[in-house]
Amino acid sequence: MKANHALTYLRQLCCSGLSKEVAITEFLKSLPMFIPSNSNTFSIGDIGLVPNYHLSGFDISDMVRIAPRIIADYHTSERQQRATAWFASHPTIHDPRIMEKSFYMTDLYNLIYRRYDMHHLLWVPVPLDGVSAGVLGMYRTPGQKPFDNKDQMQIMSLLRYLAHAYRANDTPCDVAPNSSSGMLIFNVNGTIQYQSPEARLLLEQARFPRIQIDMRQQDRLLAKLAELCGNLQRIFRGHDAPPPSHIHNGPNGQFMFRAYWLNGGESGPQNLIGMTVEHRQPLLLKILQAMRDIPLTPMQKEVGALLAQGVSFEQIGKRLSIKYTTVKDHVGKIYDKLEIRQRDELLPKLLADHH
């Protein structure tokens, strides 16, 4: 993908109105299209840069039990003071030995960074709201070249958009109709007895979209699923209880959990409870991803994304500060490229072509 198209996608993503964790997680995953990098992260902490939790552009579920302790141990007051002093006169840290001379001998590097090929790094502070501070982390493998001044200038141009994404409200959003699903089986005490491979992956995506310093927050979803099992039992005992279903929204999308008796409604201490989990991504994210991969101009991609959301020609023109006739011209070229004839065909075409 050309750099200007990748840059357009990253800007659109940050200004899309998607919740901050959805937008930032997708930003981290997509950043390598603009600046070669891998295993990118975004840490959020206090104004002293002491992290509270971390978002990542890669799967970190296998590290959530040990990573918080390692990260917390690394961020000593002495190291944070060195980082703060450095950032007072420099926009980035491009060499970790600035913060710790023996960085490549630390547990942080050897137990986490090496595991994900995070050797060369670029740490960039992102001012957020005066109370919280962010640090964008970009990484490259030992075989790649270190980040240079050009990389630093390119990422600095995106920081205001990343900060804008962080300030987005976590409002409910429409989800795409296509989904993936799996099956969990619990005992009557609410303990998982079996997970299909699909369910195991989905549960990890729902539980561990981020690394929390406070691990108690990571167990809230499991507690909620155990509560669903209890609700199901109370209903079948004749009591008033909420339906045994739960919608969980997070950086990886929406997860719907539904519980039911595996033996057709006869509860008992030896019986098992089945629970389906269904995953759907935010519809707007799917639209942006699909438009990103179509060979159109950046402006046509913006028009197409709004058109797929049902925005009128008049409103598209106002939002993008272009004439009505210009909107019509862009729409015609989008239809030609996708081989469709009308607006009603656009969204199904985008969702069908992008998996």
UniProtKB/TrEMBL annotation:
Residues 293-350 form the HTH luxR-type domain. The keyword DNA-binding applies. Keywords: DNA-binding, Transcription, Transcription regulation. SMART domains: HTH_LUXR. This is Helix-turn-helix transcriptional regulator.
